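Expect chain and fold; thus:
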Amino acid sequence: MVDAHTALGHRLQKTLYHMGDTDIFGDMALIEELHKPDIGIVPIGDRLIMGGAVAALACRRYFNFDKAIPCHYGSFPIIDQTAEKLVEGLKFASTEAVVPKVGETISL
């Protein structure tokens, strides 16, 4: 556990970092240094949490994720309804944006 709003999971030689409800912050670099997460669950929505473009910046600047999975978007009307900005922001990065459909199972 990193703090009350985030979680780290170390299983099967992959480390998952769930960012929780947050915005970009400099200590994300420390999380990368200490835990080296392979997969990030990244909140996007642009209200109360990062927008997709800022989330992509956080992934590029502070992490070396293999995959970034967006969460929270489209959950209520005032926030971003798609993950488009995150996908666009990671288009030329080493991190792959994985955007599953509702109910879809993905392999990581």
Remarks:
- The domain at 7-97 is CATH 3.60.15.10 (Metallo-beta-lactamase; Chain A).
